[in-house]
Amino acid sequence: xxxxxxxxxxxxxxxxxxxxxxxxxxxxxxxxxxxxxxxxxxxxxxxxxxxxxxxxxxxxxxxxxxxxxxxxxxxxxxxxxxxxxxxxxxxxxxxxxxxxxxxxxxxxxxxxxxxxxxxxxxxxxxxxxxxxxxxxxxxxxxxxxxxxxxxxxxxxxxxxxxxxxxxxxxxxxxxxxxxxxxxxxxxx
Length: 188
Prior knowledge:
Layout: E1 2-3, E2 9-16, E3 19-27, E4 33-40, E5 43-51, E6 57-64, E7 67-75, E8 81-88, E9 91-99, E10 105-112, E11 115-124, E12 128-136, E13 139-146, E14 152-156, E15 161-166, E16 172-179, E17 182-187
Antiparallel strand pairs: 1-2, 2-3, 3-4, 4-5, 5-6, 6-7, 7-8, 8-9, 9-10, 10-11, 11-12, 12-13, 13-14, 15-16, 16-17
């Protein structure tokens, strides 16, 4: 066990050759559980869980080299699933799915360096397809947007065109022109 200067438990678990190894628990400076899982050669490796300062589960999944690597799940503050998919170097990388805080699917597709990048589909209003196409650096880049009847209402070509953006509750947030993947021109 390791304690901070105030005598509060910061770590409990197994050691091998002076390094954390095996099943462990880590705590913040106040004594709240931050991580429980496996260590190898002094770094997080294997399955583990990370918790918020309030004690709620934030992430569960695979670790290597001390970071989120492999399959994992992130959770909203209300405990519902926020994301499930692949991680690399601590970030979303590869295929994954995002969920609204009510548990309904909001996006499924590819990620790179933590951002939507590559092919993907975005949903609003409990499962209505809103956009399908390519994302670049987290932005809609090349594809088609749909209304609630499945009719195409806009198209982006290499980041250019008219677009509609919706918030997490399916309400229209922005409608206007895009240039190079960013709001540019007329809009409201």
